[in-house]
Amino acid sequence: MFRCNHVCKKVMGYGDTKWVLRGQFISSNYKLAEAWGWSESSVRKFMRLLTDNDMISRKPSVKWTLYECTNYCAYQSVDASEIQAKPNVQKTHKKRTANAQRAPNNNDNNYKELKEVISTYSNDPKLNESLTNFLDMRIKKKKEPTVNAMELVCKTLKSFDIETQIAMLNKSIVNGWTDVYALKETNQQTPTKPTGKISFMDLV
């Protein structure tokens, strides 16, 4: 948003001063309504919409509301030397900015490499789909595997036929397991129904 601070600085207003970090700004519904020419109810609805869609976050206080634009540092590049911050905040803020700028690329590259492991391992569409679902499940659980770990999973699966591999992967997905395991064989036999008449002597 155009009101967000480009660099960290101390802001004066509302009878007080406050350090506002890069990507943040302080305001109020009244001030925003005045600046935009809207009603305060329209401002509240609009800001609630942005918050619900994870575009901004809000931290209200008695004197003002602190707004922060989500992923501002990831999309607005800046030279680290330009970032100004108060003592004990500067290093943390620089680290947050640097991580936000490089994290998406690292995640994307790692995911591409993991997908390459899957496509190299098999050309069966159903097996590839199960492997991808297994990978996505681990990422969702915040346990994204390394390329080496994914190759070990494929090595474990290689000893089984395709249907069994798919069944193993699906079982791990359902149970939220981060590895694959051989299916247990069931030795239960289906009871057979007796045929013919039963004599009294059969019951003795």
Would you give an account of this structure?
This protein has 204 residues and is mainly alpha-helical. Among the domains are: 9-82, Arc Repressor Mutant, subunit A, CATH 1.10.10; 122-175, no CATH class. Helix content is 48%, strand content 12%. It has 7 helices and 5 strands. The chain has helices at residues 29-36, 40-52, 72-75, 90-121, 125-140, 147-157, 162-175; strands at residues 9-13, 16-20, 24-27, 56-60, 65-69. The strands form 2 sheets. A 3-stranded antiparallel sheet has the order 3-5-4. Strands 1-2 form a two-stranded antiparallel sheet. Strand 4 (56-60) and strand 5 (65-69) form a beta hairpin. Helix 1 crosses helix 2 (40-52), helix 4 packs antiparallel against helix 5 (125-140) and helix 5 (125-140) packs parallel to helix 7 (162-175). The radius of gyration is 29 Å and the shape is elongated.
* Percent of residues in β-strands: 5-15%
Radius of gyration: 29 Å
CATH C-level class of the domain at 9-82 is Mainly Alpha
Main pleated sheet: 3 strands, antiparallel
Q: Give me the strand/helix succession.
A: EEEHHEEHHHHH
How helix-rich are the residues, as a percent range? 40-55%
Task: Specify the overall morphology.
Answer: elongated
CATH topology of the domain at 9-82: the name is Arc Repressor Mutant, subunit A
Distance linking N and C termini: 89 Å
State the CATH superfamily name of the domain at 9-82. Answer: Winged helix-like DNA-binding domain superfamily/Winged helix DNA-binding domain
Number of helices: 7
Second-tier CATH architecture of the domain at 9-82: Orthogonal Bundle
**Unreliable runs:** 100-105, 186-194, 198-204
